[in-house]
Each structure stands twice: as C-alpha cells, then as structure tokens.
Specification:
The complex is a heterodimer. Chain A is an all-alpha fold. Chain A is 80% helix and 0% strand. Chain B has helices spanning 51-58, 100-110, 115-128, 144-156, 174-189, 201-207, 225-229, 243-251, 271-287; strands at 5-16, 25-36, 40-44, 66-71, 74-75, 85-88, 162-166, 193-197, 210-215, 218-224, 236-240, 260-265. The chains are: A mainly alpha, B alpha/beta. The A-B interface holds A 1, 4, 6-7, 10-11, 14, 17-18, 21-22, 90-92, 94-102, 295, 297-298 and B 56, 59-63, 78-80, 82-83, 85-95, 97-98, 106-107, 109-112, 151, 154-155, 158, 164.
Chain lengths: 298, 288
C-alpha cells in the first residue's frame, strides 16, 4: 500500500488538534508579555545626541526572536519525542496501525502535525512581533526626528538617520529570520523523530534531542578545524566527516537569525539555500525514522 | 468449519530477544489454527501463554519468526490485509482530548470514510454501542465500560469482516460485560467473524463456536465447544419421576419401572473446569 496524502493529513490534523488542546499555545501569552515589556523598555541614552536608537529596536527583536527560537526548539523536540512513545504506552498506536495505515503515513503525519503547530505558533508570534516592532519603530523615529530637528541637523543627515532606524524595524529580513527559526525547529524535530523510533523512553528522546542540538552548534566548526589541521586527508575520511554532519546537523547554518536581529539584509538566495538544506535534513531523518519504525515490533 | 477462511495461522513461532541472554525467549511455538468466515473463535489461556502475541502477529504488529498469518488469504504483514479487520486491544486508551464522535471520525477518516457516509456510520455505531449521549463527551472522562464500547465502535468503523478482540470485557462490570457479549452475538448474526481472547471462560463458552486452549505458547486443544467439553467416557441419563422412583433408579438401575427416559448421552463439563484441569496438568508436567 502506498503513502496517502489524505491519511497523512488526517494524522497531521489530529496531532495539531492534540497539541492545541494540550494548551501549548499558552506560550503565546508569555510571548505577548515579553513584547509588552520590551515595548516599555527604553535605553536611557536614547534621548541624548549620541543616542543609538536602533539599539532599542535590536533589543526588542533580540528578545522576541530569542523567545521564538527557544519556544520552537524546545517545543519541536519535546512534542516529537513525546507523541509517539505516548501512543505506544496508551496502545492507541495499535488501533491506528491495525487500520490500513502504512507506518510511513503515521510517522509523516505526526511529524507534519508538530511542524504545522510550530509554524502556526511562529506565524502568530511573527505577527505580534511585527505589530509591536512597527509601533516602537514609529515612536523611535519620531523621537529621532525631533532630536535631529532640535539639534539643527541637515535634511541629508536626518534622512540617513531615518533610514538607519527603519532598517532596524519591520523588514523582510525579520520575517526571513523567523522562517529560519522554523527551519531550525524542523531539523530539530527530525532528529527527535529519529531518536523516538528506537528509544523506549520519552525522557531519553528529549535529552538526546537536545544533546544533538547543542553538539550541532559546535560539530561543524570542530570538523572544519580538524580537517584544516590535517596535512593529508583521504577522501574516505572526508566523506566520514561529512557523514557525521548528517548525524549532528550543522546548526551554524541558522546563524542568519542573528543577522536578522542585527538588521543585516537576508537575501532570497540565502533563504532558499537554507530551506533546501533543511528540507534535505528533514527528508533524511524522516526516511531513517521510517526504516527504524517499519521494523519495530509492538 | 466453513470452506471460506477468515484467519489462517500456519506454524506460527515468535521469539523475542532477551536483553541480557543470548538465548531468545519463545512466546509462541508452532501455532496453527484456522477460523472460518462467520465463526466466533475464542482463544483462552493463562497470562503470558501467547494469546496476545498470536493476535499481534495476526495484525502485523509483530513479525513471525517462523510461519505465517493470513487474513482473508492476504498475508498479515501487508498493510492491505488490515482493510477487512477491526481490532480492540486489551484495556484500550483513546485520545483523551477527543469526544466520542471525534474519536470515531478520526478512525473513520483513516479508513478513507468521508462526509455523509462517515457521519451516518458514526451515528449508527454510537447508537449500536449505546453511547449516543456521550457523543460530545471527552473520552478522558469515559468509564471503563464506555471505553470498551467506544473501542468496539472504532474497530467496526470501516465495516470489517473480521473482528479481533483482546479481552473485550476486561475490567467491565457484569452488566456492561453482558452488553458487550450481546453486541458480539449481534455481530455474528450480521455475518462478522470474531476472534477473541478472554479470561471469562463462562462467557467464551456462551458465545464461541470454537475454542483453542493455549499454554506456554503451544496450542494444546482446539475444537468446537461440543467436542471440548463432552466427557466421552461417561453417560448422562436424565429421568423424571417421584422421589421413591428416583431412589429405585439409583439402587436398581437395571429395572426402569415407573421411570421415563428423557435423554441420555455423554455428560458435559464446563469450559472453566476443563481449563483448570489442563492448567493443573500443565503445572504437574512442568514440575515433573
């Protein structure tokens, strides 16, 4: 029996409902509080002539996107690591696999359900952040224009200042940064999915998921350093080191999130490339998970 | 037995790896059984005798170490074989966040049911298992009996021809147990094949056409109830008459004056007695 998009969407939809009813979106309330707090937070030197008004906006983006990143990674690893073992423990998995449901459909549905939940949560958070950031940007802009007028700056300098403030406001790069957070969550969830197919404990899956996540931030740099120190690297060793990057995905790829916070423009080609690499990671983890899950006995 | 077979289990052996030993644990050894279409077949045995392993192998949840299982001639390791089977696991839990209706809708959609056909099927099943009032109630608040009944309904959602029920009345009170028994009989009337395992031997005796008795992973006895519980080396005579006449009958069995012979034949034991006798025998054999 071949995979069915309809069946996958039924399982994904159900997983989404399950997570929503577990009140995971309660995090959005915490996020809203962070935004409101950030909105009222003002750096003392903003009003002075040497003010760095953009810094205030950067801090706002940093706290909001930091919270989004934290939510996305913790949620994607914990939810993915929790859902399948729970189905096994509660024997609900038996009732699903005893229907004409291929195991690939079940796994893919669960994975997509978690990703859809993360996507919706990030979308809402992105909208909230964009709204708050827009209002704050307008406030900062007004303050800067007033300060510049009072100081008698030329129109040209005022325009430069205006552009600098707007560059730290709501831009496509900010949304691209949020997309990068989603892609990072997608890869993290893929890792957790793979671990959960052979792990017998939810706790083990979650701990291993985070371990791989943290190692993934340093493994790429360590690998490159090691390779650069070797005088003669055989193709086999090089292949082996690259194979390790599948086990421990290179999370440095997602550092463009920091660029988005700093107001550095993120090009379309960068985001396409990141999306492509993340999709490959997700596909590899899904296929490996399927291999492990297809042979699993209950 | 009818010629059309719903279940064919041939020389099924299942071994599990032992975590710290090289030797594998054998849960089922060379089990062969067949269930004809429309039959109710009961598999009985003590805890750990291999009943659930046999059922799981039949459902493709476990891969046989040796032998094979077929459902309506389709190998049970293939997903296609599950189109015609509904399963109720022992002590089932369903998604607590779903209502009774949503639970059936979820399973129905997995079986490609949609729209009005699905809604009609849900209504029909909720009525059948007497859970109409729990339609919008969260499954997390269901009693044990209600869980078994919603479990039975989900097993039937796609109108399977074969039902596999693992301890369908486990933990259910006598009234609920009787209701489930009646449902199973109604399903037989509707032409369904039922393969069940239960500890309630009296109930198995009441509803099953054929019974298999499994001990230590081996199918020890199998047959129709008549075959299993008839004591062939004895004769049962039923008489009617007054007390004196009965007294005479007891003392002078050769002179039957004043007594009418109503029926005679081999007396029957109960399935429970047979099971306990076999269990004791198995225990003696193990200890020998």
């Amino acid at each position: 029996m071949i995979a069915s998009l309809r069946r996958i969407s039924v399982i994904a939809g159900h997983t989404f409902t399950q997570l929503v009813r577990m009140k995971v979106f309660g995090f959005l309330a915490v996020f809203a509080i962070i935004l409101i707090a950030a909105h009222f937070f003002k750096l003392p030197h903003t009003y002075g002539p040497e003010s760095v008004a953009e810094e205030e906006l950067r801090m706002m983006k940093s706290s909001a996107m930091g919270a989004m990143s934290l939510f996305a990674v913790i949620f994607s690893i914990a939810a993915t690591g929790l859902l399948i073992p729970r189905d096994v423990e509660d024997r609900t998995l038996y009732t699903i696999l005893c229907k004409p449901v291929p195991r690939f459909d079940y796994l893919t549905g669960k994975y997509l359900g978690v990703l859809f939940t993360v996507f919706i949560a990030l979308l809402i958070m992105d909208l909230l952040m964009s709204g708050a950031l827009y209002l704050r940007t307008m406030g900062v802009l007004e303050e800067r224009v007033n300060t510049a007028t009072a100081l008698g700056w030329s129109e040209e300098v005022k325009e430069t200042e205006r552009q600098e403030v707007l560059r730290q406001g709501v831009t496509w790069s900010v949304h691209a940064g949020v997309l990068a957070i989603f892609l990072k969550a997608m890869v993290s969830a893929g890792v957790a999915l793979l671990i959960s197919t052979f792990s017998t404990s939810t706790l083990f899956t979650i701990i291993m998921g985070f371990l791989v996540y943290f190692i993934g931030h340093y493994a790429g740099g360590a690998r490159e350093y090691w390779l650069s120190q070797q005088l003669d690297v055989s193709p086999f060793t090089r292949f082996g080191s690259h194979l390790m990057s599948v086990v421990f995905p290179d999370f440095r790829l997602f550092n463009i999130i920091d660029g988005a916070i700093a107001g550095i423009p993120i090009t379309a080609s960068m985001i396409w490339k990141l999306t492509g690499i993340s999709m490959i990671y997700a596909a590899v983890y899904l296929i490996l998970s399927w291999f492990a899950f297809a042979k699993k006995e209950f | 037995m009818k010629t059309s077979l719903a279940v064919e289990i041939s020389h099924l052996t299942k071994e599990f790896p032992s975590p710290f030993k090289r030797k594998k644990i054998r849960a089922v050894t060379d089990v062969t059984l067949q269930i004809g279409e429309g039959e109710i077949y009961g598999l009985i045995g003590p805890n750990g005798s291999g009943k659930s392993t046999t059922m799981k192998a039949l459902l493709g949840l476990l891969a046989p170490t040796e032998g094979e299982c077929k459902i309506f001639r389709r190998n049970s390791v293939k997903v296609d074989s599950r189109k015609d089977v509904g399963y109720l696991p022992e002590n089932p839990y369903f998604y607590k966040h779903l209502t009774g209706k949503e639970t059936l809708a979820f399973y129905g959609k997995l079986c490609s049911l949609r729209g009005k056909a699905l809604s009609a099927r849900i209504d029909e099943l909720l009525k059948m298992v007497d859970l109409e009032r729990a339609r919008h109630q969260k499954v997390g608040t269901f009693s044990k009996g209600m869980l078994q009944r919603i479990g039975l309904a989900q097993a039937l959602i796609h109108e399977p021809r074969l039902l596999i029920l693992d301890e369908p009345t486990a933990g259910v009170d006598p009234v609920g147990s009787r209701e489930i028994r009646d449902l199973i009989l109604a399903l037989k009337e509707a032409g369904k094949t039922v393969f069940l395992c239960s500890h309630l031997l009296e109930q198995v005796q009441e509803i099953c056409d054929r019974v298999g008795i499994i001990f230590n992973g081996k199918l020890k006895r199998e047959g129709t109830l008549e075959e299993l519980i008839t004591l062939k080396d004895r004769l049962e005579v039923t008489v009617s008459g007054d007390a004196d006449a009965q007294e005479n009958f007891l003392t002078l069995t050769k002179e039957l004056d004043g007594l009418d012979l109503i029926s005679s034949g081999a007396p029957k034991t109960s399935l429970e007695s047979l099971f306990i006798e076999m269990a004791n025998e198995e225990e003696r054999r193990k200890n020998a």
